[in-house]
Amino acid sequence: PLIHEGHLLVPVRPLLEQLGYRVKWLAADNTIHISGKGHVLRLVPGNSVAELDEQEIQLEQPVLIRMDRALVPLRQIAELLGHSVKWKAEPQQAVVR
Length: 97
What we know:
By secondary structure, this protein is mainly β. Helices cover 14% and strands 49% of the residues. The mean pLDDT is 93.
């Protein structure tokens, strides 16, 4: 995880796979394709525009690549897919449901 400009960014694959989504890297068009639970989400590294169910969404932060992992804004991505996020001050932990 990384805090960047006030946003908690997390690796997209472990987060969304744990929530039951399928995450694929499509090298041919440099896109991360996420599907499941009636949604399709497309992310492009370096871009702050995502596509959710064929509608463009402006992300709070562009998708970052760090150490070969795509990092996304946790709260925004989770909430776009219908999940809630709670922040626990101690022990500084985000809980996604």
